[in-house]
Amino acid sequence: IRDSRSKVAVRSRDENIDPVGTCVGQKGQRVQTIVNELNGENMDIIEYSEDPATFIRNAMSPAEVINVIFEEEGNSCIVVVPDYQLSLAIGKKGQNARLAARLTSHKIDIKSETAYEEYLSEQSAEIEEDYLVNNEVELTEEYDAFDEAEIIADVEEIEEIEEIEEQD
Asked: What dihedral angle (degrees, nearest 10) is formed by the CA atoms of 141, 146, 152, 153?
Protein backbone atom coordinates (compact mmCIF):
# COMPACT_ATOMS: atom_id res chain seq x y z
CA ILE A 1 0.00 0.00 0.00
CA ARG A 2 3.03 2.30 0.32
CA ASP A 3 2.84 3.09 -3.43
CA SER A 4 -0.88 3.88 -3.37
CA ARG A 5 -1.91 7.46 -3.79
CA SER A 6 -5.08 9.54 -3.93
CA LYS A 7 -5.84 12.93 -5.39
CA VAL A 8 -8.46 15.05 -3.70
CA ALA A 9 -9.83 18.35 -4.95
CA VAL A 10 -10.97 20.92 -2.41
CA ARG A 11 -12.42 24.40 -2.57
CA SER A 12 -13.61 27.08 -0.20
CA ARG A 13 -16.58 29.39 -0.55
CA ASP A 14 -14.74 31.95 1.57
CA GLU A 15 -12.02 33.61 -0.50
CA ASN A 16 -10.05 34.37 2.70
CA ILE A 17 -9.56 30.67 3.39
CA ASP A 18 -6.89 28.62 1.60
CA PRO A 19 -8.66 25.29 1.04
CA VAL A 20 -5.49 23.25 0.43
CA GLY A 21 -3.65 24.79 3.40
CA THR A 22 -6.64 24.22 5.64
CA CYS A 23 -6.82 20.53 4.69
CA VAL A 24 -3.09 20.00 5.07
CA GLY A 25 -2.98 21.80 8.40
CA GLN A 26 -0.03 23.17 10.33
CA LYS A 27 3.09 21.12 9.48
CA GLY A 28 0.84 18.66 7.61
CA GLN A 29 -0.84 17.55 10.81
CA ARG A 30 -4.41 17.27 9.47
CA VAL A 31 -3.50 15.39 6.30
CA GLN A 32 -1.13 13.13 8.26
CA THR A 33 -4.06 11.98 10.39
CA ILE A 34 -5.94 10.98 7.23
CA VAL A 35 -2.84 9.30 5.74
CA ASN A 36 -2.45 7.26 8.95
CA GLU A 37 -6.13 6.23 8.83
CA LEU A 38 -5.60 5.05 5.24
CA ASN A 39 -2.61 2.87 6.20
CA GLY A 40 -0.03 5.23 4.75
CA GLU A 41 -1.77 6.03 1.46
CA ASN A 42 -0.32 9.28 0.20
CA MET A 43 -2.63 12.13 -0.75
CA ASP A 44 -2.31 14.97 -3.19
CA ILE A 45 -4.65 17.76 -2.19
CA ILE A 46 -5.31 20.15 -5.02
CA GLU A 47 -7.52 23.19 -5.43
CA TYR A 48 -10.72 22.69 -7.38
CA SER A 49 -11.54 25.17 -10.13
CA GLU A 50 -14.68 25.70 -12.21
CA ASP A 51 -12.36 26.42 -15.16
CA PRO A 52 -11.49 23.02 -16.70
CA ALA A 53 -8.00 24.13 -17.87
CA THR A 54 -7.09 25.40 -14.40
CA PHE A 55 -8.54 22.31 -12.75
CA ILE A 56 -6.55 19.99 -15.04
CA ARG A 57 -3.41 22.10 -14.47
CA ASN A 58 -3.90 21.75 -10.71
CA ALA A 59 -4.67 18.03 -10.97
CA MET A 60 -1.39 17.37 -12.79
CA SER A 61 0.64 18.53 -9.79
CA PRO A 62 3.39 18.08 -8.81
CA ALA A 63 4.23 18.52 -12.52
CA GLU A 64 4.36 21.99 -14.02
CA VAL A 65 1.92 22.40 -16.91
CA ILE A 66 2.79 24.69 -19.82
CA ASN A 67 -0.51 24.42 -21.66
CA VAL A 68 -3.83 22.57 -21.75
CA ILE A 69 -5.34 22.20 -25.22
CA PHE A 70 -8.85 20.81 -25.48
CA GLU A 71 -9.78 18.54 -28.37
CA GLU A 72 -12.92 19.37 -30.35
CA GLU A 73 -14.65 16.10 -29.51
CA GLY A 74 -15.50 14.78 -26.07
CA ASN A 75 -13.75 15.42 -22.80
CA SER A 76 -10.20 14.98 -23.99
CA CYS A 77 -7.23 17.28 -23.93
CA ILE A 78 -3.51 17.49 -24.49
CA VAL A 79 -1.42 18.59 -21.53
CA VAL A 80 1.98 20.02 -22.45
CA VAL A 81 4.74 19.79 -19.86
CA PRO A 82 8.45 20.68 -19.94
CA ASP A 83 10.59 17.89 -21.41
CA TYR A 84 12.34 17.30 -18.10
CA GLN A 85 9.00 16.86 -16.26
CA LEU A 86 7.39 14.31 -18.53
CA SER A 87 8.03 11.36 -16.21
CA LEU A 88 6.85 13.41 -13.20
CA ALA A 89 3.63 14.29 -15.03
CA ILE A 90 2.99 10.66 -15.93
CA GLY A 91 3.98 9.39 -12.49
CA LYS A 92 5.12 6.01 -11.31
CA LYS A 93 3.32 3.37 -13.41
CA GLY A 94 1.18 6.16 -14.91
CA GLN A 95 -0.44 6.85 -11.57
CA ASN A 96 -0.34 10.68 -11.64
CA ALA A 97 -1.88 10.86 -15.12
CA ARG A 98 -4.50 8.24 -14.28
CA LEU A 99 -5.56 9.96 -11.05
CA ALA A 100 -5.69 13.39 -12.72
CA ALA A 101 -7.87 11.97 -15.50
CA ARG A 102 -10.27 10.35 -13.03
CA LEU A 103 -10.45 13.44 -10.86
CA THR A 104 -11.16 15.83 -13.75
CA SER A 105 -13.27 13.43 -15.87
CA HIS A 106 -11.08 14.18 -18.89
CA LYS A 107 -9.02 11.93 -21.12
CA ILE A 108 -5.56 13.43 -20.74
CA ASP A 109 -2.83 12.98 -23.34
CA ILE A 110 0.45 14.19 -21.84
CA LYS A 111 3.11 15.46 -24.24
CA SER A 112 6.52 16.98 -23.63
CA GLU A 113 7.19 20.37 -25.25
CA THR A 114 9.33 18.72 -27.92
CA ALA A 115 6.76 16.02 -28.67
CA TYR A 116 4.01 18.65 -28.86
CA GLU A 117 6.01 20.74 -31.35
CA GLU A 118 6.51 17.61 -33.49
CA TYR A 119 2.79 16.85 -33.18
CA LEU A 120 1.93 20.39 -34.36
CA SER A 121 4.23 20.17 -37.36
CA GLU A 122 2.72 16.77 -38.29
CA GLN A 123 -0.78 18.27 -37.95
CA SER A 124 0.08 21.26 -40.15
CA ALA A 125 1.64 18.94 -42.75
CA GLU A 126 -1.56 16.85 -42.78
CA ILE A 127 -3.70 19.98 -43.09
CA GLU A 128 -1.54 21.21 -45.97
CA GLU A 129 -1.75 17.82 -47.68
CA ASP A 130 -5.55 17.71 -47.22
CA TYR A 131 -5.80 21.23 -48.64
CA LEU A 132 -3.78 20.30 -51.71
CA VAL A 133 -5.74 17.09 -52.28
CA ASN A 134 -9.08 18.88 -51.88
CA ASN A 135 -8.06 21.67 -54.24
CA GLU A 136 -6.81 19.13 -56.77
CA VAL A 137 -10.18 17.37 -56.59
CA GLU A 138 -11.97 20.70 -57.14
CA LEU A 139 -9.75 21.47 -60.13
CA THR A 140 -10.31 18.01 -61.56
CA GLU A 141 -14.07 18.42 -61.12
CA GLU A 142 -13.88 21.80 -62.88
CA TYR A 143 -12.00 20.21 -65.81
CA ASP A 144 -14.44 17.31 -65.87
CA ALA A 145 -17.35 19.75 -65.92
CA PHE A 146 -15.65 21.67 -68.73
CA ASP A 147 -15.14 18.46 -70.72
CA GLU A 148 -18.80 17.49 -70.17
CA ALA A 149 -19.95 20.93 -71.34
CA GLU A 150 -17.85 20.54 -74.51
CA ILE A 151 -19.28 17.10 -75.18
CA ILE A 152 -22.84 18.33 -74.67
CA ALA A 153 -22.17 21.29 -76.99
CA ASP A 154 -20.70 18.94 -79.60
CA VAL A 155 -23.70 16.60 -79.36
CA GLU A 156 -26.09 19.52 -79.73
CA GLU A 157 -24.16 20.78 -82.79
CA ILE A 158 -24.28 17.31 -84.36
CA GLU A 159 -28.02 17.08 -83.69
CA GLU A 160 -28.53 20.51 -85.32
CA ILE A 161 -26.51 19.44 -88.37
CA GLU A 162 -28.50 16.20 -88.62
CA GLU A 163 -31.76 18.18 -88.42
CA ILE A 164 -30.60 20.50 -91.23
CA GLU A 165 -29.56 17.52 -93.37
CA GLU A 166 -32.94 15.87 -92.77
CA GLN A 167 -34.75 19.00 -93.87
CA ASP A 168 -32.81 19.09 -97.17
From this structure: 170
